[in-house]
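hey can u check if this looks right to u? its 349 residues, i copy pasted from the old doc so theres a chance i mangled smth
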Amino acid sequence: MTAPVFDVEKVPEQAIEAYYKALEPFWYPVMKSVDLEVGPVKQYLLGRPIVIVRLDGRAVAMTNVCRHLGSSLALGEVIDGSRLRCRYHGWQYDGTGQCVHIPLREDEEIPKQARVRTYACQERYGLTWVALAEEPVGDVAPFPEFDDDRFHKNAIRQHVDWQGSVPRLVMAALDDTHFSFVHPDVLGPANQAIMPNRLGPEPVYFNDEGLLVSRYTTRLPVSPLTGGAGTGDMEPAEFTNYVTVNSVRNVVGVPAGTAVTWNVFMPVTYNVTRTFTVLGRDYDKVSANDESYEDFNLIVKEQDREIVENQRPWLLPPIRSQLLIYVRPEDAPLLAYQKWLEDLGVRQI
């Protein structure tokens, strides 16, 4: 049977809508909580315009459209710490999304339909998280090292938006056989195909927390990640990747200790993704050295970015379509992740 042919540039509207609908139940980071201290903030999540604002001391997410004449509520201001006032005609909304004040109708009852939709919102790990579905699935991406005093943590870093879908970014972080080609002499010896030694009951498996896990050993060029100075030597390393639908927590054991890279992804649209990252380590706990780790991480990310932004189709075609060829055992982690997405209803194209 001949595999169906897809236009790799054009994504059907129905495919985009199906993709958005399938991803709505999950929790996404939308901004650093520290950036919420001044006024409302406009964001797009899964193509939907939302506004994030702190009311009565808590983060609130609501549709960024005033019910009156459709003005952006993100242009407004917070009144008495408890209400968001539209800049156009002064309509005020509380943390439930209900309009509670209309300036020119002081003595009249406010229509019940004068309400904007609010979304599930919480703050954790220094980030503000939003789920668009009425009943969110699961919780935010776990980060146990955040409260572990053994680990020194860098500040949260928001990276430049990538032109790619969330699954493409997750798969780039999960792929364990591309180091020598995409990251020559950074994460692997240049142009030497290396098959990692995969560990665990299966190449990829689910742990008791419901996370997709891959473990393997390999050798890395000496770098800030390994705690070295980049002499060109190779160091043994053991990787453990903990994966959710929109995150990869990468734990690397090297002779110097353990390094953690916590990447969480926000789907701005189907083909634009924002990444928030926290780096941690239980060695070299000198804050003055943080920037060298950030610089190294950015080198790796920019090398991956060039690949991801040029992958097509924009959305992953179904496994059954055979448009993309997976090979085993090399692609076992990627295949397991995409199969998991499809089992969750995230069926693309």
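The mean pLDDT is 94.
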